[in-house]
Amino acid sequence: MSDTTMRQPFGLRIASVSFLIFWSFLALFPLLWIFTMSFKLPLDAFSESALDVITGPITRERRGGISILDICIAGAIFYAILKVPGLFGRRAVRFFARKRAGLAVLGVAYAAWLYVLVTGFGVTGPSVLGALFGGLLVWLFGFSGEDDDEGGLLGTLLAAVFYVLAAGAGLWFVLPPLLSAVDSAALQIPLVDYLAHPLIGATTEHYMSVWFDRGFYRNFLNTMLVTAGVTTVSLTVGTLAGYGLARSTSTVAFWLLILALVFRALPHSVLVTGYLPPFIASRDILQPLWDAPIIGSFLGLFTATPPTLYGQPVAVIAVLVSINQPFTIWMLRSFFQSIPKELDEAARVDGCSDMEAFRRVIMPVMWPGVVTTGLFSFLLAYNDYLICSLLLNSQNQTMVPSITQFFNSETTTTDQVQAVAAAVSITAPLFLLVMAFQKQIVSGLTAGAVKG
Amino acid sequence: MATITLRGVTKRWGQFIGVKSLDLEIADREFLVLLGPSGCGKTTTMRMVAGLETASEGDILIGGKRVNDLEPKDRDVAMVFQSYGLYPNLTVWENIRFPLKVRKVDPSTHTERVQRAVDMVELNDFVHRKPAELSGGQRQRVALARAIVREPTVFLMDEPLSNLDAKLRVSTRAQIKNLQHRLATTTIYVTHDQIEAMTLADRVVVMNAGAVQQVGTPIEIYDRPANTFVAGFIGSPAMNLLSGEISEGVFTGDKVRIEGLATNHKGPVTLGFRAEDSGISTAAGEISAQVYSLELLGDCTIVTMHAGGALLSVKAPKEFRAVIGDPVHATVSAAICHLFDATTGERIEP
Amino acid sequence: MRRQTFWKFVGPSIFLMVLFIALPLASVFWQSFFHSVPSVESVEVETCSPGFPTQICETVLKSRAVLDENGRPVTTTHFVGLDFYRSVVEPDVVWQAFSSGNPAAILRIDFWRALRFTVTFTFITLPFVLGLGLAIALAVNNSTARMRGPIIFVSLLPYIITPVIGGISIYWLFVGDGIVTRLIEAMLDRNIAVMTHGWAVEALMMFYRVWHIAPFAFVIFYAGLQGVNRDTLESAMIDGASRFERLRYVIIPHLLPLIVFVTLIHLMDSYRVFEEIVAFNAQSQRISLQWLTYDFLQPDDSGNRAIGRASASSMLTMIGIVLIILPVLRRAWRDHRA
């Protein structure tokens, strides 16, 4: 509203702009501050003066730091990384959307996933289930990009995953040696050498010790496993239900939605109280199933004895998916309702069954909503503290609950800075997520509100 | 051969009755139009034929075979939707090809059949575009092409012209009429626009409040409306309906007196006549009232006046001039009058 | 959509919700009335150690778990009525506190302490969330288009960030020699320790919650502001309404359904307050209802979890949730019948 009729008095403008600046500062400051702290030696991180925390004189003296030149180069590279998808994104998406390329990549990804599951976590049942669900998902989304220049969901997804992996690997392996090489070269040149001198003290040693010495990478892998599982399963189940509910006007559908609303309000600890005893005793509870004649021999293919669900990522995935279902189906339902009914009716008259109409006609136009809902499923699983901390044992623990391990053992100041580094490590992916998906997050937040 | 038979078809939603015990025979190759105001059950009737709604009672037969329990995909019908229902992610070409693809029609024939459909609706320049890049009329034609591409036994069209502007509507109307004639496929066409119904239909079914009011050719319906509802719905402007008394062939009402009606009926009736059948006279006439307003239409002038408990329109020559409030007389000859029962609204045959 | 197809689509989701939400709820309800303990039997065990001239034999009474034929411990379950509820609510102490004219004494009981904190937390943060969210939305709506993208980006961060991490990052600003504590000390010129004051921790937790949820309210309100009818605004201007009156009589009524929506979501979410307690390490000063259950579920030193008491406190927590969503359910029911 910026035309003449709505013009505001100057004072109001100043007030509103300064309020926005204040709010931005308030929103960012705690996060920026722990980001800064995490790169400093404890003496700097807990220094009396705020300026010292930012510039880190002691860190610079003892561990070196980054120069103006470094900042410029890194900035340029980051800028390039952000711009590349815009330039080449379409072509990459189209490549991955091609049936053969897509399937090949998918096959490799599944092989890798299975390998990790089998060797790294020693569970075969869940990995088979995971592969089944993955297959279902591929079938569900289909390769809609066949003759279509958009490329479809799968192409976009694969291209994005590849890009993130490639960019991450590039930053990790190429950037540090490149920077030090440029710096040492620039130091030889008079006048330019000033730019190459370390300006701000910075060290990554806390990250190194958190991730490798203290095994945070294992928590990271667990988090990836849980979030991937939760997102795929809850989308698969949720899209079906959301579509069914959006297209039904029956009283049953109404009551299901109301029930979902009630479930959405439940405190999670209440549910965990219900899970804990059966999960701990699941071996005994499930034994009859394994003893049963036909089902038992089928189940025996996965594990010889019934599993103890307590501590298993797969149990947490199931729990988080279920807890997330009410929210997922409400959100997807409101997205599905925005798709005209005539579309699936046309498909059904054209010769599709209900399922086919859903898969071939609705899903291809639905994927923005699915991506948005997937983001929120991811966030729920990623941010969860309570359920993971109660239902997972320490060796399968995800990142967020494991941070208290650093937090509670704050015996030395080094431990404290390491806890800060772990916190920043958890936050960084979310930061990237908001950068990449700001529009989807906003649309997801408002999707539920539109219908009130 | 595809005749369509509806036998006692009823649609209920809880207490609400959408369609009341409908009986209808549609001949092979017939162009049948379901006409009525919104909410009269015409679209529901068609959706039951398509299989998108299930009939609460009664039988629906296509080509002599009962289809009540068949899925839409198994009824071999094609449908054109009001807002077209095009697949936004597919190009025009793929949209038209879609029915062939899902019905597993031999892929080697696809190109030829799609091309034929594209030629028929003259969409050659647009086949690589997406629906979002097309105008309303072009989308309309894509929907038509998608319906004709697999040569179904029945076409269903749900107000296909209602989202087009007036000019485009006329030309697309002609195109649909021509297509149906060439393809000779049984067609059910739903509309609330009586001009569309009159111009397109072999037979018109006028519906109101879930029940059939009259079935007949456009001429029959125009010349001999079965009741006051049909009389008031067909024609532009609609038929004038006056209330009054009749005895010994003389109709009298407020400011109205018409003599020489060939009927023995006595008592309160509703009398109807069309504006174009009547005339204006400055001297004397069957109706004497004051001018309420004047509408210049170009080829004629429509004069409206209050008489017989209604606002009447009477056609006057285009050079007729008057000021609102002027006294005026309308001539209505007994021969062009229709009589309806005052309470039931049913036509009274002379 | 035919009924059969409907169930085909909705089935998997319902199965999951029944198995992992409805059944656990029922079992929690059951657990809160029944106590199951491993059966213990007392047996006389004679242990002999080689001695001289004879073996030294001792007979001791030992209790051991009863095992069934498969070698699994046998548990017995018996109905305990409201015992678990009593141990959580402690009605005797409550009665005493009221009869002795010192109602504040009940806050020494964990449950009442948690209830007090949860309720004040929920209702004090609500107006701040709505107010701040609306203020940001109006300010962003007034700003130039170029500013909007970055501000929305920055605003989303507190909302998206892992609650525990967001809480900790604020906690670190205040704890011990945190930078903000330093700043306050420099201004007041004396030593302070923020985290030793219960009220200060409580206020910080509330501050965190407002910081965390206000962006959500902002996004919703901002989306709502885009839909304000311009004709209505302009006719209000022609009618001579001032800027404030336009806000009061046109914009706020337009946003009212959204305000109700945000209120509802906020009530549901902040009633479940939990992560703040973890992040601010506040359990010795302030606890919430959900934290109470969590605490019961944590294994104690001998590895036992107080399932019964956790169930009882869960059921009591549920009552509050039902009270919060009751008006919504009533409205939905009325709308559905209409």
UniProtKB/TrEMBL annotation, chain A:
<keyword id="KW-1133">Transmembrane helix</keyword>
<feature type="transmembrane region" description="Helical">
    <location>
        <begin position="310"/>
        <end position="332"/>
    </location>
</feature>
<dbReference type="InterPro" id="IPR000515">
    <property type="entry name" value="MetI-like"/>
</dbReference>
<keyword id="KW-0472">Membrane</keyword>
<feature type="transmembrane region" description="Helical">
    <location>
        <begin position="64"/>
        <end position="82"/>
    </location>
</feature>
<dbReference type="InterPro" id="IPR035906">
    <property type="entry name" value="MetI-like_sf"/>
</dbReference>
<feature type="transmembrane region" description="Helical">
    <location>
        <begin position="103"/>
        <end position="122"/>
    </location>
</feature>
<feature type="transmembrane region" description="Helical">
    <location>
        <begin position="417"/>
        <end position="437"/>
    </location>
</feature>
<feature type="transmembrane region" description="Helical">
    <location>
        <begin position="12"/>
        <end position="35"/>
    </location>
</feature>
<protein>
    <submittedName>
        <fullName>ABC-type glycerol-3-phosphate transport system permease component</fullName>
    </submittedName>
</protein>
<feature type="transmembrane region" description="Helical">
    <location>
        <begin position="128"/>
        <end position="145"/>
    </location>
</feature>
<dbReference type="GO" id="GO:0055085">
    <property type="term" value="P:transmembrane transport"/>
</dbReference>
<dbReference type="Pfam" id="PF00528">
    <property type="entry name" value="BPD_transp_1"/>
</dbReference>
<feature type="domain" description="ABC transmembrane type-1">
    <location>
        <begin position="220"/>
        <end position="437"/>
    </location>
</feature>
<keyword id="KW-0813">Transport</keyword>
Automatic annotation (TrEMBL), chain B:
<keyword id="KW-1003">Cell membrane</keyword>
<comment type="similarity">
    <text>Belongs to the ABC transporter superfamily.</text>
</comment>
<dbReference type="GO" id="GO:0005524">
    <property type="term" value="F:ATP binding"/>
</dbReference>
<dbReference type="InterPro" id="IPR015855">
    <property type="entry name" value="ABC_transpr_MalK-like"/>
</dbReference>
<keyword id="KW-0472">Membrane</keyword>
<dbReference type="GO" id="GO:0008643">
    <property type="term" value="P:carbohydrate transport"/>
</dbReference>
<dbReference type="InterPro" id="IPR027417">
    <property type="entry name" value="P-loop_NTPase"/>
</dbReference>
<keyword id="KW-0067">ATP-binding</keyword>
<keyword id="KW-1278">Translocase</keyword>
<dbReference type="Pfam" id="PF00005">
    <property type="entry name" value="ABC_tran"/>
</dbReference>
<dbReference type="InterPro" id="IPR012340">
    <property type="entry name" value="NA-bd_OB-fold"/>
</dbReference>
<dbReference type="InterPro" id="IPR008995">
    <property type="entry name" value="Mo/tungstate-bd_C_term_dom"/>
</dbReference>
<dbReference type="InterPro" id="IPR003593">
    <property type="entry name" value="AAA+_ATPase"/>
</dbReference>
<protein>
    <submittedName>
        <fullName>Carbohydrate ABC transporter ATP-binding protein (CUT1 family)</fullName>
    </submittedName>
</protein>
<dbReference type="GO" id="GO:0140359">
    <property type="term" value="F:ABC-type transporter activity"/>
</dbReference>
Automatic annotation (TrEMBL), chain C:
<protein>
    <submittedName>
        <fullName>Carbohydrate ABC transporter membrane protein 1 (CUT1 family)</fullName>
    </submittedName>
</protein>
<feature type="transmembrane region" description="Helical">
    <location>
        <begin position="9"/>
        <end position="30"/>
    </location>
</feature>
<keyword id="KW-1133">Transmembrane helix</keyword>
<feature type="transmembrane region" description="Helical">
    <location>
        <begin position="117"/>
        <end position="140"/>
    </location>
</feature>
<dbReference type="InterPro" id="IPR035906">
    <property type="entry name" value="MetI-like_sf"/>
</dbReference>
<dbReference type="InterPro" id="IPR000515">
    <property type="entry name" value="MetI-like"/>
</dbReference>
<feature type="transmembrane region" description="Helical">
    <location>
        <begin position="306"/>
        <end position="329"/>
    </location>
</feature>
<dbReference type="GO" id="GO:0055085">
    <property type="term" value="P:transmembrane transport"/>
</dbReference>
<keyword id="KW-0472">Membrane</keyword>
<keyword id="KW-0813">Transport</keyword>
<feature type="transmembrane region" description="Helical">
    <location>
        <begin position="210"/>
        <end position="228"/>
    </location>
</feature>
<dbReference type="Pfam" id="PF00528">
    <property type="entry name" value="BPD_transp_1"/>
</dbReference>
<feature type="transmembrane region" description="Helical">
    <location>
        <begin position="152"/>
        <end position="174"/>
    </location>
</feature>
<dbReference type="GO" id="GO:0005886">
    <property type="term" value="C:plasma membrane"/>
</dbReference>
<feature type="domain" description="ABC transmembrane type-1">
    <location>
        <begin position="115"/>
        <end position="328"/>
    </location>
</feature>
